DNA sequence: TCCTTTACTTGAATCATTCAAGTTTGCTGC
DNA sequence: GCAGCAAACTTGAATGATTCAAGTAAAGGA
């Protein structure tokens, strides 16, 4: 299905701004709101930043976009939704990279004890240095991850 | 070792404010900065909010506190550091609950492909509803976690 | 006890994000 | 194809957690 169809299916109206958002986010790499706004304006002319925020929220609620919010850095968005993947985030430059779950359908992501919580999602973020930033700082070989 | 000793070991000066922060965070349950500030003032009288922010950062850098930053909610702190535990966060009330890693020393937290990243930490947050909020909203039985 | 460095105070600034009110536009029904 | 309504968009302002800056106070080694 195309973006317009997906929008309708989510009960959202099809507008130039929203199609441009889908294209921009889909063509980019975990873009932040500012970058999305720039991309949208390049495609369809002036669109207000607030419209971008509003649409991003609507698209996320509708399941067309996934929101990524690494601690201490602005929100980013991606079009890869509904699957089982996590993110590597660079501490130095903020770059975000997709990484598949180590165990397929995330059995280890169900907490041993859920303490009575009704769990509906598990967010996993790996923190580290991306290859370019590693080269810059001359970091040693990888250690293992600790939780 | 007591808090004063831990502070010195981290190369930090021992002050009434910092000891009060350690006590407050240790005695509380994943408190946010405002709550920590209140607790500190109760213990040692007026301390500026900025001093609390500054000390929390210093204590975190020194490894005496762990910072928890669930997406979309203010930063929280805890004294349980250096072990392998994750967090359950309630979508409704924001409550944070500790949960041990399902697999001991987090083998599944090493990404399949680290894409060349030098990974040093993995953050895992489970999102859901805590028991009281579940009761309020009359939610059904738990689903399994998806990543 | 002195001196240097670190911690703290007060006050202002930042920045992502949200709220509010009014206007425009997509789209359903006629 | 047109009317009407709700959703989307615009402009402008507000919010709130966090940080920055400059000056004062106090910890702790010499």
For the biggest sheet of chain A, the summary is: 3 strands, antiparallel
Cα end-to-end separation of chain A = 39 Å
Instruction: Find the count of extended strands of chain A (DSSP E, 2+ residues).
Output: 6
**Strand-and-helix sequence of chain A, N→C?**
HHEHHEEEEEH
Give the neighbour order of strands across the main sheet of chain A: 1-3-2
Low-confidence parts of chain A lasting 5 or more residues at pLDDT below 50? 141-147
Strand content of chain A: 15-25%
The secondary structure category of chain A is alpha+beta
Helix fraction of chain A? 25-40%
Q: Which shape of chain A, going by the Cα principal axes?
A: globular
Report the mean per-residue pLDDT of chain A as an integer.
Answer: 87
Q: Can you walk through the features of this model?
A:
Two copies of one chain form a homodimer. Helices cover 35% and strands 21% of the residues of chain A. With 147 residues, chain A is of the alpha+beta class. The model of chain A is unreliable at 141-147 (pLDDT under 50). Chain A has helices at 3-9, 16-27, 33-44, 49-61, 131-137; strands spanning 31-32, 66-68, 76-78, 85-90, 96-100, 118-129. The first copy, chain A, is globular and about 40 Å long. Chain A has five helices and six strands. In chain A, strand 2 and strand 3 (76-78) form a beta hairpin. In chain A, the strands form two sheets. Chain A has a three-stranded antiparallel sheet. A three-stranded mixed sheet of chain A has the order 5-4-6. In chain A, 31% of the residues are buried. In chain A, helix 2 crosses helix 3. Chain A binds a DNA duplex (30 and 30 nucleotides) through helix 4.
């Amino acid at each position: 299905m195309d973006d317009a169809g997906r929008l309708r299916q989510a009960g959202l109206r099809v507008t130039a701004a929203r199609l441009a958002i889908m294209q921009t986010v889909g063509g980019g790499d975990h873009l932040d709101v500012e970058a999305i706004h720039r991309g949208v304006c390049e495609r369809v002319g002036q669109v207000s930043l607030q419209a971008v925020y509003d649409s991003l929220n609507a698209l996320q609620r509708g399941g067309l976009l996934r929101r990524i919010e690494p601690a201490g850095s602005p929100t980013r968005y991606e079009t890869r939704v509904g699957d089982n993947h996590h993110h590597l985030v660079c501490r130095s430059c903020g770059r975000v990279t997709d990484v598949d779950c180590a165990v397929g359908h995330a059995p280890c992501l169900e907490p041993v004890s859920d303490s009575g919580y009704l769990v509906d999602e598990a967010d996993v973020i790996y923190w580290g240095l991306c290859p370019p930033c590693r080269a810059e700082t001359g970091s040693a070989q990888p250690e293992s991850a600790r939780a």
